[in-house]
Specification:
By secondary structure, the chain is of the alpha/beta class. The protein has one domain: Rossmann fold (3-Layer(aba) Sandwich). 46% of the residues lie in helices and 16% in strands. Strands 3-2-1-4-5-6-7 form a seven-stranded parallel beta sheet, sandwiched between helices. The longest helix is centred in the middle third of the chain and has 29 residues. The relative contact order is 0.15. The protein binds NADP nicotinamide-adenine-dinucleotide phosphate. NADP nicotinamide-adenine-dinucleotide phosphate binds next to helix 1, strand 2, helix 4 and helix 6.
């Protein structure tokens, strides 16, 4: 399915996986709205993608964990680009520590950004998709949304939450021809992984942000009748 002239919103597009997704979509002729916490990454990216691919772009610095900010930002993106065909909920944070040692504020912040943020953005975008009678929503979850591990209680809780929300929403909006998918990558070579100490010394083995972007694109290009609940990517390919 050709994506040219469709419109997309990508959250967390300032760097890492979100930047790769926004770039790949623009290269396919998709007009792209971008949100990130700060404008340092998305502003130059919006300019670059518009020049390079001739698509319309808009970048708005937004904290996705602040509901009113999100509602205003989504309205502004739709003013620039029109109704959104595609939403990629990618923005997220990951810090790790034992449940008992992690400060309460940090635990709450992770869940607020990753889970509530995804909910706020989705809730703001959905009415126009329902009205249009079509749409694709791709939520970037994680293998931590399928399994917990020591030190990941907040991150896993937020990503398990995304999995449950995805599964519920997909059943609510299927009748509107809206597809909702959760992707569950393992470790990807980004700043988030580096800060968490997850990078391996052999970076050849690591998945790259572009690999996740390719999986997003593959999901978006599937025929409407194909419904993908979850698709994962693993870091370590057996050699
Ligand atoms: N890297 C991995 O190993 C891995 C594996 C599985 C899943 N994931 C998931 O993939 C997604 C992207 O991760 P990444 O590794 O690309 O991370 P990253 O390099 O740290 O980039 C995160 C992006 O999210 C934005 N962001 C953070 N908090 C935000 C907030 N409150 N409001 C709006 N935007 C916010 C950042 O904005 P600024 O640019 O302004 O800082 C940045 O653009 C996350 O949901 C993560 O959980 C990552």
């Amino acid at each position: 399915m050709a994506l040219r002239e469709q419109t997309a919103l990508v959250t967390g597009a300032g760097r890492g996986i979100g930047k790769a997704i926004a770039t790949l979509l623009a290269s396919e002729g998709v007009h792209v709205g971008m949100l990130a916490r700060t404008s340092s990454g998305i502003d130059p990216l919006a300019k670059q993608l518009a020049e390079e691919f001739g698509v319309r772009t808009v970048a708005i610095a937004t904290d996705i964990s602040a509901r009113e900010e999100v509602e205003q930002a989504v309205a502004a993106v739709q003013e620039h680009l029109g109704s959104l065909d595609i939403l990629v909920n990618n923005a997220g944070i990951g810090t790790f520590g034992s449940l008992v040692d992690m400060p309460v504020e940090e635990w709450e912040r992770i869940v607020r950004v990753n889970l509530f943020g995804t909910y706020y953005v989705t809730r703001s975008v959905l009415p126009s998709m329902i009205k249009a009678g079509h749409g694709s929503i791709v939520n970037i979850s994680s293998t931590s949304g399928e399994r917990g591990a020591a030190t990941t209680s907040a991150y896993s809780a937020s990503k398990f939450g995304i999995m449950g929300m995805t599964e519920s929403l997909m059943q609510e909006v299927r009748k509107h021809n809206i597809r909702v998918t959760a992707l569950t990558p393992s470790t990807v070579n980004t700043e988030l992984a580096a800060k968490a100490g997850l990078k391996t010394s052999d970076e050849d083995w690591m998945m790259q942000p572009d690999d996740v972007a390719e999986l997003v694109l593959a999901c978006l290009k599937l025929p409407d009748r194909v419904f993908v609940k979850t698709a994962g990517l693993w870091m370590t390919n057996p050699r």
